[in-house]
């Protein structure tokens, strides 16, 4: 077994790489980001150059691959103990005392295991007096990232909005290995219909729903915003007659035009998006350049109309996975349709990892302006 000091050196290199790429831990894990071909193990060639030299130190069984178990064991040994404190998604801030939480609610009864949501809400009645405690709250719906094949509702970035007087829902949806597009957007729209249908049970304001997501979740959030009640992306849920439209969208570095992702990334990019094993190709069900019509169906620009809600788009200009040019293109097309759009480019920002002190006030201001 390598000397413990070697693990410290490897960890330092991994942290350095993570900071360099500005990876967003709430979008997916570093393991998932580096596992480009999605086979559940890491080869040396898949690792960033700066950590490749430490490959053998992590590959403890010497089989030429790093497994998830080896990765997890290494991280447990290498990560410092932060005094036993465990931060939640609000940082060190607890949930507001009046907030209630329901988890793993099936928005399609009897559906897939991934078709569930968590809901953080302010009860309509005081449990002791039975009197009305809070007026209906606007809702922020979080859609997680993870290349459409990983990630979880359990890591909800929007929980700080509870302290601003919003209810929050966090969705899971089927991964691309479960079903190809449009399954993912159909799940999101069905969840929104479920939330609107049951708004009275959870004290939600059905006329003021906002959606926010990062990376793959940013793409799905953008698609929710532009497709509105389009029947082209509608499944056949029991609540089909209920609107899936939202009133505001925050898109964090979501892919938009997948056919241009390679050309937009240029030398900065570290993934071949046109590959048959890329997340985009796996989402569509085949190499994207060979399935142009299917890719167009997944492009939020396809569904643009002047009735679409306002957008806040945030993207790092050093993003190596999804080029900032994707968001620039989307912002330009939104403006052409006279749709309110604000593009915030984070200087030096990568694929997430943005400074909350900078982004949170802008997000709060945006949603307050359009949902309150």
- Main beta sheet, described? 8 strands, mixed
Q: Using the CA coordinates, give the radius of gyration.
A: 21 Å
Whole-number average pLDDT? 85
- Strand coverage percent: 15-25%
Number of alpha- plus pi-helical segments? 12
Approximately how much helix is present in the residues?
Answer: 25-40%
CATH class of the largest domain: Alpha Beta
Major sheet: arrangement of strands: 3-4-6-5-7-8-9-10
Sketch the topology as an H/E string, one letter per element: HHEHHEHEEEEHEHEHHHEHEH
Distance between the termini: 58 Å
CATH H-level superfamily of the largest domain:
Alpha/Beta hydrolase fold, catalytic domain
Poorly predicted runs are 1-28, 78-89
The secondary-structure class comes to alpha/beta
């Amino acid at each position: 077994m390598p000397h413990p000091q070697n693990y410290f050196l490897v960890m330092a290199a991994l942290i350095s790489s993570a900071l360099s790429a500005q990876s967003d831990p709430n979008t997916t894990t570093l393991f998932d980001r580096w596992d480009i071909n999605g086979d559940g193990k890491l080869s040396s060639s898949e690792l960033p150059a700066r950590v490749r030299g430490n490959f053998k130190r992590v590959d403890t069984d010497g089989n030429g691959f790093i497994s998830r178990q080896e990765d997890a064991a290494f991280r447990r040994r290498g990560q410092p103990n932060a005094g036993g404190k465990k931060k939640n998604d609000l940082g060190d801030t607890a949930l507001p005392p009046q907030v209630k939480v329901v988890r793993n609610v099936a928005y399609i009864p009897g559906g897939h295991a991934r078709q569930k949501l968590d809901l953080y809400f302010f009860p309509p009645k005081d449990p002791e007096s039975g009197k009305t405690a809070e007026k209906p709250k606007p809702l922020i719906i979080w859609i997680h990232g993870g290349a459409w094949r990983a990630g979880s509702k359990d890591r909800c970035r929007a929980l700080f909005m509870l302290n601003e007087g919003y209810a929050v829902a966090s969705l899971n949806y089927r991964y691309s290995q479960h079903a190809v597009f449009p399954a993912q957007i159909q799940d999101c729209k069905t969840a929104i219909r479920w939330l609107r249908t049951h708004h009275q049970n959870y004290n939600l304001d059905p006329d003021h729903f906002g959606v926010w997501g990062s990376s793959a979740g940013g793409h799905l959030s953008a698609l929710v915003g532009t497709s509105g009640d389009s029947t082209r992306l509608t499944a056949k849920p029991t609540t089909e007659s209920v609107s899936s439209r939202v009133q505001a969208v925050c898109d964090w570095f979501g892919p938009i035009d997948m056919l241009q992702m390679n050309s937009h990334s240029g030398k900065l990019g570290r993934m071949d998006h046109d590959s048959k094993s890329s997340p985009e190709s796996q989402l569509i069900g085949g190499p994207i350049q060979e399935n142009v019509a299917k890719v167009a169906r997944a492009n939020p620009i396809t569904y643009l109309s002047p009735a679409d809600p306002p957008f806040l788009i945030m993207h790092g200009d050093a993003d190596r996975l999804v080029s900032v040019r994707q968001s620039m293109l989307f912002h330009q097309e939104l403006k052409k349709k006279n749709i309110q759009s604000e593009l915030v480019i984070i200087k030096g920002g990568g694929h997430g990892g943005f400074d909350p002190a900078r982004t949170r006030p802008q997000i709060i201001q945006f949603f307050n302006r359009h949902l309150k």
